[in-house]
Amino acid sequence: MNEQRAQAYVKLIEQLLACADGEEPNILQANQELIDPEFLQMMENYATGLE
Q1: Residue 9 class from Cβ within 10 Å (0-12 exposed, 13-18 middle, 19+ buried)?
Q2: Could you tell me the pTM of the whole model?
């Protein structure tokens, strides 16, 4: 994974965490190109860091 893509994943995760309830589907729809197995792995890593 390149650094630019990793930064885009983190930005998307932070958007999802900060958005109003119910806005998640709209954010995910707008960023479909980032939704892939690597994004899911990044989400898991990010969540582990929050514990």
Answers
A1: buried
A2: 0.88
